[in-house]
Amino acid sequence: MDWHPDLLGDGFEMCYVTHPDDYSGHVRSTVIRSVPARRNGVAIVYIHGFSDYFLQWEMARMFVAHDYSFYAVDLRKYGRSLLAGQRMFEVRDLHEYFPDIDAAVDVAMDEGCDHVVLLGHSTGGLTASLYVSEQSRWNISGLMLNSPFLDWNLPSALKHLAIPVVSAIGRIFPKMPVKQKPDRGYAESLHTAFNGEWDYRRDWKPDILPDPDAGWVRAIQRAQQELRHRRIDMPVLLMHSAESVRSGDGREKYSRADAILDVDGISRYGRILGPDVTEVSFPGGLHDLVLSSRDVRERVYATMLDWLRDNVSL
After folding, report:
1. Antiparallel, parallel or unpaired: β 13-22 and 25-34
2. pTM for this entry
3. In Å, how far from its chain's centre is CA 102?
4. Which of 1, 59, 103, 138 is deepest in the core (most CB within 10 A)?
């Protein structure tokens, strides 16, 4: 692997992984790593969400401080992996991301890790869940989910009528844009330019979620439906905020609730992922729990460490 210093600095390194061309041309993913001086044999492999990239440096340092090797992947057409001329976030089937995850897991194993635990956020949590429901890799020992995208945050009529229609259209016209109401509230709770404490590249993580296309809707819908007929036979840690931002809520709610997904849907479908699911909700948590206020994210860190200690053999 051809490692280079990463934009996060402070010991983070990155390397590109080239994959076969797809419907939009050349494709690559990126593996980012931070490893401790004394490894405990367990690697955390992190998968980001939609309109996102790996930027959660504090979380990574927390794992490394406890002797876990940390690897993250910027999926194809996201963040570090984006190539000139590509449409950001374009995907037609979440299985397209499996080789990107494979590459990060392979790096961890090649560097001496005996166990791998996947950690997926939002759409990355959906992708990671689908991945472990299909892959029989002996070295993956657990799954941690940070607000996974297991259900649409939409009124019932839209969820059960409009989404299947758009999904069907996406099979034939995958590039058809799907308009959504602009909302900058979540970004305002995160970035230092507003009311948050995090500095990140806003061209890679835009303030307003970009309009997805029908192909993306189809990819999400199919993955969610497939998961409801699967069983994940490994320990799962299911984490989410205690509440969601609802229509009509004031802007202050954005700083202490999930402004992207419905936590009730996360809970409903997360609990049935498999026979060994530990669910924890966090009052005051944002959609990305590890970007919440310090008191919340410290509880999240402690929860993950306790769960790893109890569920992954060292």
Report:
1. antiparallel
2. 0.97
3. 15
4. 59
Tokens matching residue 112: 């001496």
Residues 6+ apart with CB under 8 A from 177: 211, 212, 213, 214
pLDDT at 314 over 80: no
In order, the DSSP letters of 93-114 are -GGGGHHHHHHHHHHHHHTT-S
For 27, residues 6+ apart whose C-beta sits below 8 A from its C-beta are: 18, 19, 20, 21, 76, 77, 83
Here the contacts of 97-101 (C-beta below 8 Å, separation 24 or greater) are 97/47, 97/127, 97/131, 98/131, 98/135, 99/19, 99/29, 100/17, 100/19, 100/29, 100/73, 100/75, 100/76, 101/45, 101/47, 101/73, 101/127, 101/128, 101/131
Helix (H), strand (E) at residue 43: strand 42-47
CA-to-CA distance for 153 and 25, rounded, in angstroms? 32
Quick: pLDDT tens for 72-115. Answer: 999 999 999 999 999 999 999 999 999 999 999 999 999 999 99
Distance between first and last Cα of the chain: 26
Lowest mean pLDDT: which of 105-114, 118-127, 165-174, 241-250?
241-250
pLDDT for position 61: 98
* Dihedral angle of Cα 140, 153, 268, 99, to the nearest 10 degrees: -10
According to DSSP H, which parts of 156-280 are helical?
156-157, 163-172, 185-188, 214-227, 263-270
- Alpha carbon separation from 21 to 89, 213, 265 (Å, rounded): 16, 20, 36
pLDDT of residue 163: 95
